[in-house]
Specification:
This protein is of the alpha+beta class and 279 residues long. It has two domains: 17-161, Regulatory protein AraC (Jelly Rolls); 190-278, Arc Repressor Mutant, subunit A (Orthogonal Bundle). The chain has ten helices and nine strands. It has helices at residues 109-115, 125-133, 140-156, 173-189, 196-202, 207-218, 222-237, 245-251, 257-268, 272-278; strands at 17-23, 36-43, 46-50, 53-57, 62-65, 71-75, 83-90, 119-121, 159-161. A hairpin with a 2-residue loop joins strand 3 and strand 4. The mean pLDDT is 89.
Length: 279
């Protein structure tokens, strides 16, 4: 199986693909696919990296991932023994080359525009989640009707972008494997000290070449990205009232509490203690 590009399994003569992912973790390799992905997180939580940004996902969330948009899931296995995600995959030409260009579907073009940077619903989630739950036992025709109903509800919802910068070129297989190795190493080792030399070695590049490579493809430095990964982990841990903030700082890879407090406020706009009280 190639890491990038990733081929969605598809039955012959089926235009709208419905998929269920159940297990301890979701697919945790950086990948991209031609299909737009609409997914409902029924159970589970963790982080998702999309483009240049890392975001938290949790049970009840509805995510939209655009065509050929690189992304990777990192499930939080300490909270949920089983993760369950329902997904619909489709392209602009799934139902015919000009289907979505018809006047009847003109407003759906907003979905294609918005999906380019990915999105997460901040309203109307329960309605969309209930529609997803009906997909499991639906016939192909019923799924198509449910798909259009889900799109209609998405158009009425508030959607927050998942990414602010998208690398304009499609990853080659070799480049995709390199970036996947970088992401996987980071997501598995963020709590440890990571040097520029060690991460450059993972990518088989010199430190200077790695810095240019990563900045060009994410619009940020590697260490900016690493701090964001650590902060998102801290956000999840802060919801556990049994953990002290000093413990959370250490578990998230920060050397001292003052640096943790400063970086957290820079990224989230509030202190860790204020974030805990709000959540």
């Amino acid at each position: 199986m190639k890491v990038l590009p990733f081929k969605i399994p598809k039955l012959k003569d089926v235009s709208l693909i419905y998929q269920e992912d159940k297990g301890k973790i979701l697919y945790d390799k950086l990948h991209q696919h031609e299909e737009i992905q609409l997914c409902a997180i029924v159970k589970g939580e963790g982080s998702i990296v999309v483009g240049d940004s890392i975001n938290e996902y949790k049970s009840g969330d509805i995510l939209i991932i655009g065509s050929n948009l690189p992304h990777v899931f990192k499930s939080d296995t300490s909270t949920w023994k089983t993760t369950f995600m329902q997904t619909l995959f489709f392209t602009k030409t799934s139902f015919g080359e000009h289907f979505f260009e018809l006047g009847d579907f003109k407003e759906i073009q907003q979905i294609f525009t918005m999906s380019a940077s990915g999105g997460i619903l901040t309203s109307n989630k329960n309605v969309v989640l209930e529609l997803f739950q009906q997909l499991k036992k639906a016939s192909n025709l019923q799924r198509f009707i449910l798909f259009l109903t889900i799109i209609r509800e998405l158009l009425k919802a508030d959607i927050q972008p998942l990414s602010t910068f998208i690398y304009p070129k499609k990853y080659s297989d070799n480049e995709g494997k390199r970036m996947s190795n970088i992401m996987e190493f980071t997501m598995n080792n963020y709590q440890k000290e990571i040097s520029l030399h060690s991460i450059a070695e993972i990518s088989y590049m010199t430190p200077n070449a790695f810095c240019r490579y990563f900045k060009q493809r994410t619009n940020k430095t590697y260490f900016q990205f690493l701090i964001e990964v650590r902060i998102e982990n801290a956000c999840r841990l802060l919801k556990n009232k049994d953990l002290l903030i000093t413990e959370i700082s250490e578990k998230s890879g920060f050397k001292n509490i003052s640096n943790f407090n400063r970086k957290f406020k820079e990224n989230k706009g509030i202190t860790p203690s204020n974030y805990r009280s709000l959540h």
